[in-house]
Amino acid sequence: YDAKGTARGLRVYAPDLDTGDPRRLALVSELRTALATGGIEVHVQPQARTTTGEVVSVEALVRWDHPETGRISPEEFVPIAERTGLIGALTTRVLDRSLAACAAWRAAGHDLGIAVNLSARSLHDADLVDEVARLLARYGVPAGRLTLEVTEGSVMADPARAIALLHQLRDLGVRLSVDDFGTGYSSLSYLKRLPVHEVKIDRSFVTGLQNGSEDVAIVRAVTDLGRHLGLEVVAEGVEDAATWELLREMGCDLVQGWHLSRPMPAAELLPWLRLRPVAPAVLRAV
Ligand code: C2E
Ligand code: MG
Ligand code: MG
Ligand code: MG
Questions:
Q1: Which residues form the EAL domain (predicted)?
Q2: Number of C-alpha atoms within 13 angstroms, CB side, residue 266?
């Protein structure tokens, strides 16, 4: 049980996607069950205008509460779903729960947008466009209230095919966003070719914004680029008022992060909105 032994032990239990290790096999079958029986839910994290503090949309973030081990991170189970053919069912589940929630908010008089993350595999799924259209119609949500987030990496797996699919989604009237922008390897040339409405500056550049001048320069450059291309610019990972204020000065449109709210169950959003002060502290101080 020395440090070395513990490290070896941990390695044994870590899920290895490239071998048939037992933990991974168990997770796959448990994930399949959870998808069939409702153990997969959607939490939402609000997004606000930097200038007014108004909450105009949310991002849907998938959550899996495992009956024995507790909550498992999407960073762990989304890649497993991708490699085992479960990603289609996962994406359908998240879209369904997200649009159901959006419809409920609309019925209560709140015209909010919702953003859903797409994985690389979903960008190769010929059924996705019909599926999105079917679910929008079922819940009566206007296409323009749904944003689909893709990463540069997921597009780069097969750019021609992904870009063709993005055009089809765009033709439905759905909004498209490039998530984790700045972490891919082809940012500038591909941004011009992607038929997107929005860029989301990766949290790794945003969270330390006060500390490093390099991050300030990067965020300012991406914000200017987005605005000149006519794109809405969103910053994720905004953890304090000073960062929000800096982003507002730079001309970033929307903020998302712990300073506004942590992700919460979809059913808690309207109560949270009701209890929230009209404007956050950063705006009252301006
Ligand atoms: P993402 O789409 O970039 O989501 C943002 C992540 O940052 C979320 O982690 C969110 O909880 C976290 N976050 C938000 N605000 C803050 C903040 O102020 N500080 C810090 N440190 N973190 C913050 P989460 O929910 O664990 O999701 C991780 C990733 O898993 C997502 O990154 C996304 O790539 C993926 N994911 C989540 N839900 C889905 C889904 O439904 N489908 C697919 N395909 N992927 C998903
Ligand atoms: Mg996202
Ligand atoms: Mg992101
Ligand atoms: Mg991320």
A1: 24-277
A2: 26
CB 141 within 8 A of CB 110: no
For 192-210, the pLDDT digits (tens) are: 889 999 999 999 999 988 7
Nearest ligand atom owner, CA of 59: 2
- Distance between CA 125 and CA 28 in Å, rounded? 20
**Global pTM exceeds 0.90:** yes
ipTM of the complex: 0.98
Our answer on whether the CB atom of 182 is closer than 6 Å to any ligand 1 atom is no
Judge if the beta carbon of residue 223 lies within 6 A of ligand 1.
Answer: no
Note whether 286 and 52 are within 8 A (CB): no
Instruction: Answer whether 247's CB lies under 8 Å from 207's CB.
Output: no
Residue that the structure tokens 């991050």 belong to: 215
Running DSSP on this structure, what letter comes out for residue 39? -
Q: Between the CA of residue 261 and those of 37, 122, 178, what are the distances in Å?
A: 29, 28, 22
Q: For ligand 1, atom 15, which residue shows the shortest CA distance? A: 257
